[in-house]
Amino acid sequence: MILVLNGPNLGRLGTREPDIYGAETFEDLATLCRDTGRKLGEHVEVRQTNDEAELIGWIHEAADGRIPVVLNPAAFTHYSYALRDAIAMRTAPLVEVHISNPAAREEFRHNSVVAGVATGTIAGFGLQSYVLALHAIAEMNTTS
Ligand code: DQA
Description:
It is an enzyme of class 4 (lyase). With 144 residues, this protein is α/β, with parallel strands linked by helices.
Protein backbone atom coordinates (compact mmCIF):
# COMPACT_ATOMS: atom_id res chain seq x y z
CA MET A 1 0.00 0.00 0.00
CA ILE A 2 1.27 3.47 -0.93
CA LEU A 3 -0.51 6.71 -0.02
CA VAL A 4 -0.42 9.55 -2.56
CA LEU A 5 -1.25 12.73 -0.64
CA ASN A 6 -1.94 16.11 -2.20
CA GLY A 7 -2.17 19.53 -0.57
CA PRO A 8 -4.16 22.69 -1.33
CA ASN A 9 -5.53 23.63 -4.76
CA LEU A 10 -4.38 20.39 -6.41
CA GLY A 11 -8.02 19.25 -6.57
CA ARG A 12 -8.43 21.96 -9.21
CA LEU A 13 -5.91 20.52 -11.66
CA GLY A 14 -7.13 20.98 -15.22
CA THR A 15 -8.60 24.42 -14.58
CA ARG A 16 -5.82 25.73 -12.32
CA GLU A 17 -3.14 27.68 -14.27
CA PRO A 18 -3.01 25.04 -17.06
CA ASP A 19 0.06 26.71 -18.59
CA ILE A 20 1.97 25.66 -15.44
CA TYR A 21 0.15 22.54 -14.23
CA GLY A 22 -1.24 21.11 -17.50
CA ALA A 23 -4.73 20.27 -18.76
CA GLU A 24 -5.20 16.98 -16.96
CA THR A 25 -7.60 16.88 -14.01
CA PHE A 26 -7.10 15.61 -10.48
CA GLU A 27 -9.16 12.54 -11.43
CA ASP A 28 -6.73 11.91 -14.32
CA LEU A 29 -3.85 12.14 -11.82
CA ALA A 30 -5.56 9.72 -9.43
CA THR A 31 -6.18 7.23 -12.27
CA LEU A 32 -2.53 7.54 -13.42
CA CYS A 33 -1.29 6.82 -9.87
CA ARG A 34 -3.62 3.85 -9.35
CA ASP A 35 -2.69 2.39 -12.77
CA THR A 36 1.02 2.83 -11.99
CA GLY A 37 0.48 1.05 -8.67
CA ARG A 38 -1.28 -1.84 -10.42
CA LYS A 39 1.71 -2.26 -12.76
CA LEU A 40 4.06 -2.22 -9.78
CA GLY A 41 1.92 -4.66 -7.78
CA GLU A 42 1.17 -2.01 -5.12
CA HIS A 43 -2.21 -0.78 -3.90
CA VAL A 44 -2.22 3.02 -4.29
CA GLU A 45 -4.69 5.28 -2.47
CA VAL A 46 -4.90 8.91 -3.66
CA ARG A 47 -6.19 11.75 -1.46
CA GLN A 48 -6.34 15.57 -1.66
CA THR A 49 -7.13 18.21 0.93
CA ASN A 50 -7.01 21.98 1.28
CA ASP A 51 -6.74 21.58 5.05
CA GLU A 52 -3.33 21.54 6.76
CA ALA A 53 -4.69 19.71 9.83
CA GLU A 54 -6.21 16.95 7.70
CA LEU A 55 -2.97 16.51 5.74
CA ILE A 56 -0.97 16.26 8.99
CA GLY A 57 -3.45 13.65 10.26
CA TRP A 58 -2.81 11.55 7.14
CA ILE A 59 0.97 11.81 7.68
CA HIS A 60 0.44 10.55 11.27
CA GLU A 61 -1.69 7.68 9.91
CA ALA A 62 1.14 6.76 7.50
CA ALA A 63 3.70 6.87 10.33
CA ASP A 64 1.54 4.64 12.56
CA GLY A 65 0.95 2.15 9.72
CA ARG A 66 4.51 2.25 8.34
CA ILE A 67 2.97 3.22 4.99
CA PRO A 68 5.18 4.78 2.26
CA VAL A 69 3.98 8.14 0.97
CA VAL A 70 4.20 10.20 -2.21
CA LEU A 71 3.44 13.76 -1.08
CA ASN A 72 2.77 16.92 -3.05
CA PRO A 73 2.53 19.45 -0.21
CA ALA A 74 1.65 22.24 -2.72
CA ALA A 75 2.03 25.69 -1.12
CA PHE A 76 2.55 24.12 2.36
CA THR A 77 5.97 23.10 0.96
CA HIS A 78 7.23 26.61 1.45
CA TYR A 79 6.08 27.48 4.97
CA SER A 80 4.48 24.65 6.97
CA TYR A 81 6.81 23.77 9.83
CA ALA A 82 3.92 21.75 11.31
CA LEU A 83 3.87 19.55 8.21
CA ARG A 84 7.66 19.24 8.34
CA ASP A 85 7.52 18.13 11.99
CA ALA A 86 4.89 15.51 11.13
CA ILE A 87 7.01 14.15 8.25
CA ALA A 88 10.04 13.97 10.55
CA MET A 89 8.15 11.21 12.44
CA ARG A 90 7.83 9.07 9.31
CA THR A 91 8.57 5.35 9.59
CA ALA A 92 8.68 4.55 5.85
CA PRO A 93 9.98 6.31 2.72
CA LEU A 94 8.31 9.61 1.79
CA VAL A 95 8.97 11.17 -1.61
CA GLU A 96 8.17 14.87 -2.06
CA VAL A 97 6.82 15.59 -5.55
CA HIS A 98 6.01 18.68 -7.56
CA ILE A 99 4.36 18.96 -10.95
CA SER A 100 6.25 22.13 -11.82
CA ASN A 101 9.89 22.88 -11.02
CA PRO A 102 9.63 25.29 -8.06
CA ALA A 103 13.35 26.16 -8.36
CA ALA A 104 12.64 27.71 -11.76
CA ARG A 105 9.72 29.83 -10.49
CA GLU A 106 9.19 32.72 -8.03
CA GLU A 107 11.76 33.20 -5.27
CA PHE A 108 9.33 32.15 -2.49
CA ARG A 109 9.01 28.70 -4.11
CA HIS A 110 12.77 28.05 -4.04
CA ASN A 111 12.75 26.90 -0.42
CA SER A 112 11.09 23.67 0.70
CA VAL A 113 10.78 23.32 4.47
CA VAL A 114 9.86 19.64 4.03
CA ALA A 115 12.70 18.54 1.68
CA GLY A 116 15.13 18.00 4.55
CA VAL A 117 12.93 15.37 6.20
CA ALA A 118 11.76 13.63 2.99
CA THR A 119 13.57 10.62 1.55
CA GLY A 120 14.01 12.61 -1.65
CA THR A 121 12.32 15.04 -4.03
CA ILE A 122 11.14 14.74 -7.65
CA ALA A 123 10.03 17.95 -9.34
CA GLY A 124 9.40 19.38 -12.77
CA PHE A 125 8.18 16.36 -14.74
CA GLY A 126 4.47 17.20 -14.79
CA LEU A 127 2.23 14.33 -13.65
CA GLN A 128 5.14 11.99 -14.44
CA SER A 129 6.76 13.24 -11.20
CA TYR A 130 4.24 11.01 -9.38
CA VAL A 131 4.98 8.01 -11.61
CA LEU A 132 8.73 8.39 -10.96
CA ALA A 133 8.10 8.70 -7.21
CA LEU A 134 5.94 5.55 -7.16
CA HIS A 135 8.70 3.68 -9.02
CA ALA A 136 11.27 4.96 -6.51
CA ILE A 137 9.18 3.70 -3.59
CA ALA A 138 8.51 0.32 -5.23
CA GLU A 139 12.25 0.00 -5.87
CA MET A 140 13.06 0.78 -2.21
CA ASN A 141 10.45 -1.76 -1.04
CA THR A 142 12.00 -4.55 -3.07
CA THR A 143 15.63 -3.71 -2.32
CA SER A 144 15.30 -3.05 1.43
C1 DQA B 1 3.45 22.62 -6.58
C2 DQA B 1 4.42 23.81 -6.51
C3 DQA B 1 4.07 24.73 -5.36
O1 DQA B 1 4.96 25.85 -5.32
C4 DQA B 1 2.66 25.26 -5.52
O2 DQA B 1 2.29 26.03 -4.39
C5 DQA B 1 1.65 24.18 -5.77
C6 DQA B 1 2.01 23.08 -6.66
C7 DQA B 1 3.72 21.73 -7.82
O3 DQA B 1 3.23 20.60 -7.81
O4 DQA B 1 4.35 22.16 -8.78
O5 DQA B 1 0.52 24.25 -5.31
O6 DQA B 1 3.65 21.82 -5.42
